[in-house]
Amino acid sequence: MIGCSYGRNFQVTVAGGSYQEGLTSVLQGVPPGMLLHERDIYGDLLLRKPGADELSSPRKEPDLPVIYSGVNVADTIEGAGNKGHTNGTPLVIITPNLDRHFIHIKQYQDTNRTPRPGHASYASFKKYGPNDDAIGAGFFSGRYTSTIVGAGYVAKEVLRACGIRVCSYVRELAGVRCDDVAPETALENTDAYKKMRHDLDPFYQEVYVKERITPEMRFLEKMAALAEIENEIEDIRGKAPKMQPAEIADKYGVHHIVNCPDIEAAQAMTDACNEISATGDSAGGVVQVVVTGVPAGLGEPVFHKLDGELGSMVGIGAVKGVEVGAGFAVKDMTGDENNDEMRAEDGQVRFLSNHAGGVTGGLSTGQPIVARLAVKATPTIDKPQRTIDKYTLEDKALEAITRRDPTIVARIWPVAENMTAIILLDLLFSYYGYEAFKERLGSK
After folding, report:
1. CATH at 89
2. DSSP 407
3. Do the Cβ atoms of 25 and 6 come closer than 8 Å?
4. Alpha carbons within 13 A on the beta-carbon side of 412
5. What is the per-residue DSSP string for 5-60?
6. What integer best gives the mean pLDDT of the chain?
7. What's the DSSP call for residue 428?
């Protein structure tokens, strides 16, 4: 299977499947000297994992990552203080599948002759034949996005050291849309939402805060701990700290389920989605990504434009469109309305608007980068649907499926955030290269 790698300078290759042994991210181009802990990577993975709330699938995957290579297992010399730091070699992150039981595999075996409408199951069968990994949709399952989130966390940490911040949130869900907010507000709200999820996630508390898995443990010791945790998933889930929505809003200033800066809009989104889900159906929406601190000139012309690379996020499962800045709305705007005028202020360029979303000519302008992703409704629904037998091509009826996500939108925002970080870091390597050459050549 080709097509599972991204990047030229910061390269990410992903592998695995929904019901295989697990999923893997291989990162090349990670700078040496970063202190990296599995606890921190999990802090992002828990934001997209299933079974966390009423708007996600009941699958109980904890998504606990293991760093397999790419960090120093000890100080390179006595007292160096670089244990646990990246060393510049390929970084490998493994996320084992723990909630992978035969009863669920059997359900897929019983239905795999009949492709699910809206899923990749028919197209992947035509491409790979009878050996297509159709258990849980294999590599076409939303589970593979955990590989993007793990890799993207590392990219975000590099970007943060360079003064670049990336965040994402739910802009629209089930037809309910929140008003736009300032980039700083979006960042602050997303940070607060993550803090809430960390504090209330039972696996974060049980596994990492209680140090059942630590950086000092060897790989096999971590695997032994995960084998124990696999048998305790229900017990650990039952230890989740209990807080009422009003308490969460008061303490953290966020909604308890949906990461949206407007708490009232987030609740309206939740209510609308639950109404749709009660009929057996599912809902779609829009995720917005905001980036601050990007220097002007990031991006490459023609085939690797910044906005073109952001458009590659249609590769995220369920994303059907990406728009930058005003996006499709530009068709109804005049040039005067769409152009972002400039002025000089204290030796700096100031833009009077940001309809371009921080990108012109495929290069960053120095303004906040704004992109939106259109996310389709979950194709797995609790309704009978018409399909075919992919072996005999007979018409068939697909039974309703109850183990499902009422919406994918509330779980895709961290994927979009971290994929954006991967894209930006890959381009940032080239940007710094150009700047270094400009400085060196200009000094002669």
Report:
1. 3.60.150.10
2. B
3. no
4. 32
5. EE-SSSEEEEEE-TTSSEEEEEEE-PPTT-B--HHHHHHHHTTT-SSSSTTS----
6. 92
7. H
